[in-house]
Every structure is written in structure tokens, then in C-alpha cells.
Amino acid sequence: MDFSAELKRHLARVEQGIERHVPRGDTRPARLHGAMRYSLEAGGKRLRPVLVLAAAELCGVTDDAALAAAVAVECVHTYSLIHDDLPCMDNDDLRRGRPTAHKAFDEATALLAGDALLTHAFALLATSYAAEPAVAHALIRELADAAGSRRLIGGQMEDLLAEKKADATSQDLEFIHLNKTAAMIEASLVMGGLAGRASPETIASLRRAGRHLGLAFQIIDDVLDATADSATLGKTAGKDARAGKVTSVKLHGIDASRRIAQEHTAAARTALAGAGGEPAFLHALIDAMAERSK
After folding, report:
1. Following CA atoms 282, 285, 287, 288 in sequence, which dihedral angle do they give, to the nearest 10 degrees?
2. Dihedrals phi, psi of 17, to nearest 5 degrees
3. Which CA distances in Å does 114 have to 59, 85, 155, 225?
4. What pLDDT, on the 0 to 100 scale, is given for residue 233?
5. How far apart are the first and last CA of the chain?
């Protein structure tokens, strides 16, 4: 298995899916749709939609049955980044190597672009899987749970509340990591399995793998924020420490954080073994995420 070639294949499919399933930038109102496209087309790792497609292939689906689900996940992820960067949140100027949406457009347009991407994701799932109501329901339920007040948004709220919190605990940090980051990575693998009509046992294995991969991913993100530069990251480096955020580095230090991330990476690989299929690409992707420098 040529990992680089397989990754490029999946990435190309994601870009094709965005082109197919998201309104063009000149759709009226063009400023809104242009802002949506600006943020979506900035690139990034595309980890979440690639996980959707790879999990579906693991379950034997090689056509475009999971493509709309992959695009829906990327729409929700991009919305969360747009809102996360707003002045009322992290107030960041750089995302995916270029100005954030509110800098490239304005704050109101960025806010609405995020709102539109979020709602578009659920409309896309409802329409693309309308012929299979059970699949549509399962996908919508999974994404709504991962993106809701108890998970993605709840994790973001706890992250804000924990800023400057002197007595933050490891339990506080785990709640933030599990929900702000791991929820959507977990949902990506699960949604790929759902689109691939996987068994409940396979779904459970994918869920466990996603949970551990998500925790490893965020811990590595914390380390990179403390050790890399903005040019490498494509976003502002060192902002966690300046904001007083609760991070793995703050609570455990860099070396211990790296060790914990390695443990979660190994656990993700172990969990994936229970999903069946040929996991070579997913194993390689998990390893690449653990070794990334941005």
C-alpha cells in the first residue's frame, strides 16, 4: 500500500465532493457563499473527511456512497474553525496559512458563513441519503450529537471557561479534549462505517479508535502550539499559553504529553483491529497524524 498515493486519492475525492455538494461562491448572496467557499477551500489536512471515506472503504464501500457524509463533516469542522477564530472567541488572524474569515471578509459575514456551513451539513445528509431513511437518520443523529452542546460546542464552552483557571484538573482537560476535538474525529470514523452499512460491532470499534485518535491529535496539537512556529503551523503559534488555556503541555509538560499521545495512538490502532477489513491505510494515517509537524 502506497500511503502517499492513497492519501492523495482520498484528498482529491474530498475536493471533488466539496465542488459537487457545496453551493458555488457566486451563488446569491455571493458574499456569503464566497466566504463559505473561502474557508472550505483553504485546504488544511482534511483529516475528518478522509477518515469518513477510509472507514467506508474499510467496510467495503468503494463508490461515492460516503462522499456526501465526508463533505458534511468538513462543513461542520470548517464552521467550528470560523467561529473559533472570531474576536469573541480566540480572536485569531491566521487559519490554514491565510487570513481568517473575519479578516478576509468581516465579522458579520464570517459569523453567517459559519452558520450556513453548519446548517448545510444537515441538509446535505438529509437530501443525499433520502432514499435510505435509516442511513440518513443514523448519519444525522451521529453528526448532531458530535457537534452539539454536550460535545463540540460544550467542549468549546469548557475551553473558554478554563482560561486563566488556576486549579484546572486533568479531568477538566480530558472533557475539553474529548469533546472539542475527539468528538468530531470519532464521528468521522463512525459516519464512514454507517455509510458503509457496517455492523454494530464494527461501529463500536471505529468509535473507540476515533476517541483515542482524537485525544492523541489534540495532545499533539497542544505540543505543536508550544514548540512550532506560525509559518509551519499555518495558524498562530503560542496562542494557548498567551490565552492561559488549559492544555496538555500546561498540565503535564511536553515530554509527558508526547508519551500520552503515543499511548492513545497505540490504543487507536488496537481498537481499529476490531473493525475488520484491511486497515493498512488507516493505520498509516494514524501514524502520520502522530508524527506530524503541523
Report:
1. 170
2. -65, -40
3. 32, 11, 18, 24
4. 65
5. 24
CB neighbour list of residue 137: distance below 8 Å, 6 or more residues apart: none
pLDDT at 38 over 90: yes
With beta carbons less than 8 A apart as the criterion, state whether 117 and 99 touch. Answer: no
Provide, rounded to the nearest whole percent, the portion of the chain with pLDDT above 90. Answer: 85
0.85 exceeded by the pTM?
A: yes
pLDDT tens across 164-180, in order? Answer: 778 889 999 999 999 99
Which DSSP symbol is given to 196?
Answer: T
Q: Nearest 5 degrees, angle CA 254-CA 147-CA 142?
A: 115
Report the mean per-residue pLDDT for the chain: 94
Check: CB of residue 210 under 8 Å from CB of residue 189: yes
Q: How far is CA 16 from CA 26, 46, 249, in A?
A: 18, 13, 38
The 10s digit of each residue's pLDDT in 121-162 is 999 999 999 999 999 999 999 999 999 999 999 999 999 998
What is the full DSSP assignment across 262-281? HHHHHHHHHHHHTT-S--HH
Closest by alpha carbon to 213, among 269, 277, 142?
269
Angstrom distance (rounded) from CA 121 to CA 73: 7
